[in-house]
Every structure is written in structure tokens, then in C-alpha cells.
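Consider this pair:
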Amino acid sequence: MPAFSCLLYFLLLSGSRVLAICPRACSCSHGHRVADCSGQGLSQLPEGLQHNIRFLNLSHNRLQDLGGRLSHFGHLRTLDISHNRLLRLPSDLPRALWDVRSKGPIGKQLRGWHLFIYFVFYFILIRKTEQFARVGTAIVTPLSEFYTS
């Protein structure tokens, strides 16, 4: 019984290090908080990504729809969905997201007026509960950059 207690104690102390698993189609670094799943021919989000991931590169895959699959990544700051088969941006982008990179077909569709309309709806309707911080007369929003080319 003491050996079992020692093993249990070790597992409790090491916590996420034992449980942190990188999906087979990705390469992970920084304690699995950075995942590069680019160029793997993925048609769906890989299983097993850490919930506390900060950077996710899904570029150069065959993703068509990510709806409903990104919201639980509450710490995600950078998302690269360039060169996929997406027809629209996911509607459930995490609140911590600052940087969305989308080169390729979706980026071309979202330029100019369409991009403006998307962000108006995104920030007003989808993030209606989001609290905006006011600094003087400027409104600081969570999503600070969107790359389309």
C-alpha cells in the first residue's frame, strides 16, 4: 500500500505534466500551450488539445467548419486558420483571442466592407456580454489584429 500512496502523491504533485498530451498531428512546445498543427491535411480540429493553449496554428489544412469547437480554449491568444477551406470565421472565438491570421480564400472574402460588417456583428451580437475597457475616448477590444494577406 505505501508504494501506491507514493505513486498517487507523485501524480498529484506533477499534475498537468503527466496529463499534458499533444495531439499526434501537432507539434507542441511551451508546456503544450503552443500547438502547431499546420500542413497535416486535417479536416477537423484535432482531439486532445490542452484547454489552456495560447497559440494554435491550423494553417494549410482542409478545415471547412470550426463552429462550436473553439470556445472552450479560454486562454487562446493567437489563432492561424490561413489556407483552409473555411467559408466563414468561427462564431465562437474565445474571449482572450487577440490575433487571428487568415490568409487565403476566407481572407479574400472578408476584406473591406464584409470584414467591417463581420466585426460589427461579432463584437455587438456574439460578444454582447463582453466588457469593453474605456481608455479616454478609445475602446479597447480583445481582438486587436486580423491578418488577411
In short: The two ends are 61 Å apart (CA to CA). The domain at 16-147 is CATH 3.80.10 (Leucine-rich repeat, LRR (right-handed beta-alpha superhelix)).
